[in-house]
Amino acid sequence: MEIKNVVLASASPRRKELLLQIGIQPEIVVSHVVERVTSSVPSEVVMELASQKAADVAAGRKAGETVIGSDTVVAIDGKILGKPKTHEEAREMIGMLSGRVHQVYTGVCVILKGEDGNDCSRVFFDKTDVEVYPLTEEEIFQYAMSEEPMDKAGAYGVQGFFARYIKGLKGSYANVMGLPVSRLYQELKELNGI
Q1: Is 129 part of the annotated catalytic residue set?
Q2: Do the beta carbons of residue 57 and residue 31 sit within 8 Å?
Q3: Looking at the predicted structure, is the pLDDT value of residue 184 above 70?
Q4: Would residue 1 count as lying in a domain?
Q5: Which domain holds residue 103?
Q6: Which CATH number fits the domain that encloses residue 170?
Q7: Which of 87, 103, 117, 139 has the most beta carbons within 10 angstroms of its beta carbon?
């Protein structure tokens, strides 16, 4: 079974790679919507942002196309850790994660463009618990001073150098990378009546 005419409302190379991995060749159309957050609950935040991105891109698409919007956050003790703006901020975030379990939430919005504006949509989130080994101050400093943490929620990428510090995870690995593709695939099948 092939799902066609998929538009990914994201510039994330990791999300594109994950879709390609499951046999979906997306067109990339980056959303430029001004993100508005009305909640501080991680699961609600990611669904809200994913919906805004998907709706922004879907507004200019034609019937039969499927638009996917997504947003990922890292949270510890219910506090959302965004992308670090400085290496010092990355050091603080990695220090918070060291030796602890935190959560990665990814919200996904899928909009199937219908005839005459009758669109179908699904919005959901996935959560993965990630346990990090205790890091030494030197390990935290060296990682934080690299460029790897600078464009990633929570200041790390599970698929990069930081993998050496991941003790384990409970849930979807792909979700931690930024797109829970197994759940997404099931939603796409249902929306397309397959």
Answers
A1: no
A2: yes
A3: yes
A4: no
A5: 6-191
A6: 3.90.950.10
A7: 103
